Structures are given as structure tokens and as C-alpha cells.
Amino acid sequence: MKFTKLHGLGNDYVYVNCFDEDLSRVDLPELARRVSDRNFGIGGDGLILIMPSERADFRMRVFNNDGSEAKNCGNGLRCVSKYVFDHGLTEQTTFTVETLGGTVTPVVSLGADGKVDHVTIDMGEPRFERAAIPMTGIPEEQVREEAIEVGGTAFTMTAVSMGNPHAILFVDEVKEEDVRHYGPMIEYHQWFPERTNVEFIQVLNQEEILFRVWERGSGVTLACGTGACAAAVAAHLSGKTDRKVTVHLAGGDLFIEWKEADNRVYMTGPATEVFSGKYLGEIPFK
Ligand SMILES: N[C@H](CCC[C@H](N)C(=O)O)C(=O)O
Fold first, then answer.
1. Is residue 216 a part of any domain in this protein?
2. Which residues form a coiled coil (predicted)?
3. What is this structure's pTM?
């Protein structure tokens, strides 16, 4: 099976171009687990499929490294956008990509080499109701700066959906050990029936956020695009930041704007192609 490795600020996935590879009979969650393994497989935070779509120019399917399928992936969308342009699947610098969380409209920007250097994506409108996250409790209720206690420690949390769930925790100081210790406790917290991504954010000033993430289904990653969007929205709602912020992730910076005019969140950042190859491991079939 042919694949390409791309990453968005170090959030790296194994990409398969399903215009070339027929994976219709493949056990995709098991394939994701196998190719994501950094010792016995190719290595990555998961598997992303680039597919034809009946309602958009392309379709993206995202599988975390535990095999669970996600509804959206911001870093993945930037890398899909780079792949389809650089590999000639489109000559347009803007197009549409269908995801389980909705259809988005990337705009690619080219470098001196004529290849995609960075991408701006309209990631759509954030959702806050418990039913949309999803969270247990009163369906139309929102969760803003509420206490959540895990492991004997209480955090202040705002819940945001960007098509996928995010528990945004406001902390005075972001600590890697806290991400690893409390991240899985919140990912599997009883309030989140479909689990959740967990973001630890330290507001530096009106225009900058320090950000670390424990991703649902992948654990600690160097970056999370949907998480950065959710964090920017939660921070603005708290009155701590402007609508335009730079989010400092472990793998680099994303520029997020939550526009007042259309209530939509715009994410701008890089996408990098690392290598391509042929996976020789056994393909698991359904
Ligand atoms: N772990 C996420 C999917 C990947 C999102 C992240 N890598 C991004 O860039 O948005 C979830 O299960 O919702």
C-alpha cells in the first residue's frame, strides 16, 4: 500500500490517497493501529484517508492511533490540502473538503517552489451545548469555566466542539507532567460519552496562548489544530484574549481568528510533506 507521511507542526499522520488505493474492504481501525506504530509500523499519530466525495471536492477520514475514527482534524486538513494541490489532484488554490464534522474550505498559499507552504482553513462555527460536544447533562446547557475534578485536583474547564470534542482547561502554568497525568483521566471522564480531547492552556496576554494537548485516541501530540481553534474560542469567551490569537503549541505556532462577522473560526498554519513509501506489512481485511 502506497502512503505519504505529512505533518502539521509535528502532528504527523500516515496519509493514503484513496484515488489510487482501494481500501473499501480493509479493516481501517486495525490498519490505523498497525501503520501508526512507531516501532513495528510506519509511525504516526494516526491514519488519514484522502477520498473522493459526493458533496465536496474531496473527503477526509481520520483515524487516531488507537483506531478510533475522529470527526475532524485541523492539522490533517492542512496536510490534505497540501497533498491534493502538490500532487496535482487539483489546480485550484481553494476547494472543499468533507469531514464527518462538516465541510470546510481550505485556501492554500504557495512558497517560492510553487508548492503549498501554509494553509488557511475556515473551520466553521464552534458549538457549546452539551448535546453538541457531546456531554452528559442538560442538552442545551453550555459548560463555561466550570469546575471538573480528577485525581484530587480541580480544573476550570470550558467545553467546545469544532466538530470534535474539546475540554479546555485554564491553568496558571502548563506542565507536561500534568498533561500526561490528568489528560487521560479527563479523556475518559464520565461526562464525555464519546471521550474528549483535553487542552491545557496558559493565557500569556491578549494575543498569545501557551497550549499543550492530550488528544482523544492518540495521547500527547505536538499539535492539535481543532484544539487550537477551541482554545482560542474558550479564551476569548473568558475575556482573556482578543478574537485573533497566536497559539504556541509544542510543535510550533498556529494563528487563529474567531470572526465576529460570521462566527466562524479561521486557522492558519504550515503543512509539511516528509516522505512517501510502500507499506509492506499485512493489510487487515474486514
Ligand atoms: N484526536 C482527535 C482527532 C485529531 C485532531 C487533531 N490532531 C487536530 O489537528 O485537530 C479526536 O479524536 O477528535
1. yes
2. none
3. 0.97
